[in-house]
Design goal:
9 strands; alpha+beta; elongated; 7-stranded antiparallel beta sheet; two-stranded antiparallel sheet
Length: 398
């Protein structure tokens, strides 16, 4: 780049392209994952971590590393935190609200307060070298997220330092990302408030349960979609919508009587019939959907209690004019996935009417229901991502 003007033009172009990506996504976790993927690809960066500021700490959202292709998936929901202070590089960048650019983390500049934790390198044999940490700061001068990028590579593939030009471009991009990311955070807050409204009626419908079901569903879907050859861009787009929509799967319970929702003993037949109406009531909230998110939310709310063998509910009118529950592939894939995610979380969580069922027994129940309650292919994807689901469980404790 031969001039400041050329660098500025390049920065603006990069920013507009990265920001445009965000408008396709509603879930903050998916947005940050996509941002990290995109920036790494644009600048030939080997690895990275993205953090979200929660309760005054930096929480790991996603980890990516080209040398460990499953690392991002297996680490995404660990829920580990870093304090925002001078002890770690990422914490220091957030604390000072400034970019930190280090040529080699094994040879830190003298006099700095922060240190580099080599435990990951020792455990895996990886060599972290060049690092740049970029805080994303909103219009109220609050750090909302932090990008940590590791080992930028030259055209020849050798690890090089992050140049001043790259640092400048990343600062411009981070400034532009603040608005869309804050919007995503605000949208998620609105979703959680809807869930909390439902929780006022049904004690089992907590924000943590909704977040777990949403996260379980997105991971099961991603594996299912990959196995079935869905294009990568389409996977990200649908995964984002399923995660948010799945959180609202039981929103129709706001229309069910308290005496039924809060009853500790078994329901009578008439009470069970009234409870089952929550599926139709939830779908009515998204009647005449205005976008793909509301379309998926509607089909999940309506059909997440359908069963693979046709013994679920509600009864619907088919194009043929027949009235019956859906079965098999008639059930939307989003609802087939949420059906497993919802039952799995109910099994492993204590409720007013039951104790926690141990993980091994819960997984067996899911597998024993393959081909009857659940789609066998979705059960296979559930089993494949089970280690991630167990991490999610701890990420969003009740």
């Amino acid at each position: 780049m031969s001039s400041d003007r050329e660098l500025l033009e390049y920065s603006v172009n990069e920013l507009s392209e990265v920001v445009s990506i965000l408008y396709n996504y509603r879930d903050i976790n998916t947005s940050l994952e996509i941002i990290l993927q995109d920036i790494r690809k644009r600048f030939n960066i080997e690895a990275g971590t993205v953090y979200l500021v929660e309760d005054g700490n930096l929480r790991f959202v996603n980890v990516q590393n080209d040398k460990f292709h499953d690392l991002g998936e297996k680490k995404a929901y660990i829920g580990s935190e870093l304090p925002i202070d001078g002890a770690s590089i990422a914490g220091y960048a957030a604390y000072k609200k400034q970019i930190v650019n280090i040529k080699d983390v094994y040879s830190l500049p003298s006099g700095v307060d922060y240190t580099f934790n080599r435990s990951f390198d020792i455990e895996t044999g990886y060599r972290t070298k060049s690092v740049i940490v970029v805080p994303i700061i909103n219009y109220e001068n609050e750090v909302i997220s932090v990008l940590q990028l590791i080992n930028i590579k030259s055209i020849r593939g050798t690890i090089i330092p992050f140049s001043r030009d790259i640092s400048y471009v990343l600062q411009i991009i981070a400034s532009g990302l603040a608005g869309p990311l804050q919007t995503s955070l605000d949208q998620m807050d609105s979703i959680l408030r809807m869930v909390e409204l439902s929780a006022l009626r049904d004690p089992s419908e907590t924000a943590a349960h909704a977040q777990r079901v949403g996260a379980y569903s997105s991971e099961i879907f991603e594996h299912y979609a990959r196995v079935n050859g869905v294009a990568h861009n389409k996977i990200n787009f649908i995964k984002d919508k399923i995660r948010v929509s799945a959180m609202l799967h039981d929103i129709g319970k706001v229309g069910v009587a308290d005496a039924i929702l809060k009853k500790k003993g078994p329901l009578t037949d008439s009470e069970r019939t009234a409870m089952r109406k929550h599926a139709v009531k939830g779908a009515k909230i998204f009647d005449k959907p205005r976008n793909s998110l509301e379309s998926i939310a509607k089909e999940i709310a309506l059909h997440h209690h359908q069963q693979w063998d046709g013994s679920g509910y509600p009864v619907v009118q088919l194009p043929s004019g027949e009235n019956r529950p859906l079965k098999g592939e008639e059930i939307p894939i989003s609802a087939r996935i949420v059906a497993i995610a919802d039952v799995f979380d109910a099994l492993i969580t204590k409720r007013s009417y039951k104790e926690v069922i141990p993980m091994e027994e819960s997984v067996k129940i899911i597998n024993d229901s393959s081909g009857t309650h659940f789609d066998p292919d979705v059960v296979a994807s559930f089993n494949a991502v089970l280690p991630i689901l167990q991490l999610i469980r701890h990420r969003y404790p009740s």
